[in-house]
Design goal:
The chain is α/β, with parallel strands linked by helices. The chain has four domains: about 190 residues, Alpha-Beta Complex (inorganic pyrophosphatase (n-terminal core)), CATH 3.90.1640.30; about 70 residues, no CATH class; about 110 residues, Roll (Diaminopimelate Epimerase, Chain A, domain 1), CATH 3.10.310; about 110 residues, OB fold (Dihydrolipoamide Acetyltransferase, E2P) (Beta Barrel), CATH 2.40.50. It is built from 19 helices and 19 strands. The longest helix is centred in the middle third of the chain and has 34 residues.
């Protein structure tokens, strides 16, 4: 459970440099660490020419660009090897679009199969490339931890240029060039680019050094892919990323990609008003569904096709398999809940598995179980290569990576972030996993010392404060995401005018409130139909509501509403 705090009032002195802005804007900027007039102007008015860094500040960029230009000049066969997720696929599209623009045809995109090959840069694929007389491989969003595979490529006479944004770990690859701002001695001023963002910097560099018939600024059309990846991969939306996403969303709204246009229509996104929520909750799941359920190359083809019929078929297909994915995840969640109901005791850590469960879907199922039971969850299944793999999610009470490190001999491999991770494990150790994790949890929880995560509310507002002027101020801070969260507001002692449940399973919540002019403001909460809320809700009752303010364009009718975060 989160513990909420309303931010302290800021003195006029501290806000002096922001005095040209409305009071709410001053406060929201200050709370986001933007405290000077110059920083405010930079944050509110991203400028492509001023805020996008020179790609040649990146280590090995010059070397990589020269090698690619040489390959083009000699007509060598090039492979673009990208990861299969919603960062690698858009990154692969960026380089595909570049080579297509310069009319270079001796190039092929390769995306490994999630179930048959798994994550990373694989020797088996490299050996097949050697048979095709490939002389250069450019990785996208992978490769920085695959030293052995790079060595194999070198043995076969293939140069490898790694573009990646993950932290180097273990043996450093002996690649021809490595483009990664997180590597040692890299002086690039911004370190948190997405994998597609790094691929974009490479494309920028090649265009700068190459003698191509390309209109100045053409590369900005590639920013739609950078925006999708930057938002979907949850990289911080600050610094250069903010500028890339800001312009990338503008490009998305005008993008002529036939597949993108078709998909937006199918899932009822107004392309001209697309925002970061549409990317994160609507586009990204369908792109990721391609690799979770079947072939990631289908998502790649959606973005590169110029064929209306193929675009129609691919958008239909991605939507269909995303619905199938939802159905499978729902059935896994149902099975888990049934098992939990039959337990004599629910332990501190929920550990469950089934060899028939597809590991790529278990993170989504774990999210649902964490939300329901507010305990750390570890779920496992068996992948296409007969390996037991799983996903884990934390309720905020413990750092999962530290928890797994304490019992690292239990796992074949593990990794991730504090609250989200993955692991692989032997058939023998799976039988002891529940007991081992419940023991390590106690120690990890003591070290984490985090029974309640602190969440900050930006300001107290009244229902009558919800108007287009207020929204206009908030909108200027977009795009929102990691590092720049949506502003949160506390509405105290507000009376519920109406309660509705909607959706196929009636698991979404709508609360209506009346303003003084009798106009209705609705508050929407998806998957908020649960016992803890229902006990607080009754028509005519007064509640304290924590929510963000958003614009809905449902049925192309713009209206303001609240997005429920919590009810106190």
């Amino acid at each position: 459970m989160s513990k909420y705090f309303v931010r302290e009032k800021i003195s006029e002195n501290d806000l002096y440099e922001l005095k040209e802005y409305p009071e709410l804007m001053q406060e929201l900027l200050f709370y986001r660490g933007v405290k000077t007039a110059n920083k405010a102007n930079e944050f509110l008015n991203p400028n492509y020419d001023d805020h996008i860094h020179n790609p040649f500040l990146m280590k090995d960029m010059e070397k990589a660009v020269k090698r690619i230009l040489s390959a083009v000049d000699k007509k060598e066969k090039i492979i673009i090897y990208s990861d299969y997720d919603c960062d690698g696929i858009p990154g692969g599209v960026i380089l595909y679009d570049f080579f297509k623009k310069i009319k270079y045809e001796n190039v092929k995109n390769y995306i490994p199969h999630r179930h048959k090959e798994g994550y990373g840069f694989h020797k088996s694929a490299i050996e097949e490339f050697a048979k095709e007389r490939v002389r250069l491989i450019i990785t996208v969003d992978c490769g920085i931890t695959d030293a052995n595979s790079v060595d194999r490529a070198n043995e076969l006479g293939i140069n490898v240029i790694i573009t990646d944004h993950h932290l180097p770990a273990g043996e450093f690859p002996n690649a021809y060039a490595i483009i990664n701002p997180k590597q040692n001695n890299d002086e690039y001023p911004y370190k948190d680019l997405s994998g597609a963002g790094v691929a974009f910097k490479l494309a920028q560099g090649i265009i700068k050094r190459g003698d191509f018939d390309i209109i100045d600024g053409w590369e900005k059309w590639l920013l739609d892919m950078v925006a999708i990846a930057t938002v979907a991969d949850m990289t911080p939306l600050l610094g250069e990323n903010r500028c890339l996403a800001y312009y990338g969303i503008k490009v998305l709204r005008k993008s002529p990609r036939v597949g993108l246009m078709k998909l937006c229509r199918k899932i009822k996104i107004n392309q001209q008003q697309i925002n970061e929520d549409d990317i994160g909750f609507m586009l990204a799941p369908r792109i990721n569904a391609a690799s979770r359920m079947d072939m990631p190359y289908d998502a790649f083809k959606l973005f590169i096709t110029n064929d209306e019929i193929q675009a129609d078929e691919l958008s239909d297909y991605l939507n269909k398999i995303n619905n199938e994915r939802k159905g499978i995840v729902a059935s896994i969640v149902k099975e888990i809940k049934k098992r939990i109901e039959n337990l004599a005791e629910i332990k501190k850590v929920i550990v469950m598995g089934n060899p028939l469960w597809r590991p790529t879907l278990l993170g989504l199922a774990a999210n649902s179980i964490v939300d329901e039971y507010e305990k750390p969850v570890f779920l496992w299944g068996r992948d296409g290569r007969d390996i037991l793999k799983g996903s884990c999610r934390s309720d905020g009470s413990v750092n999962l990576v530290k928890m797994m490190e304490m019992v690292k001999e239990t796992f074949i491999a593990f990794g991730g972030h504090a609250y989200s991770g993955g692991f692989s494990i032997t058939n023998e150790n799976i039988y002891f996993l529940e007991d081992i994790l419940n023991k390590s949890y106690i120690k990890a929880k003591e070290e984490h010392n985090c029974d309640n995560e602190e969440a900050y509310i930006d300001k107290r507002l009244e229902i009558d404060d919800i108007n287009w002027n207020t929204y206009g101020i908030i909108e200027q801070l977009a795009p929102f995401g990691l590092g720049n969260p949506k502003p949160l507001f506390l509405f105290e002692n507000i009376k519920i005018a109406e309660i509705k449940h909607f959706g196929k399973d009636k698991n979404h919540l709508q609360l209506d409130f009346k303003k003084n002019d009798n106009k209705i403001i609705s508050a929407i909460g998806f998957f908020k139909n649960n016992e803890s809320f229902d006990a607080l809700l009754e028509k005519g009752e007064k509640i304290n509501l924590i929510a963000s303010i958003e614009k809905s364009t449902f049925r192309n009718f713009p209206e303001l509403r609240l997005r429920i975060v919590d009810i106190l």
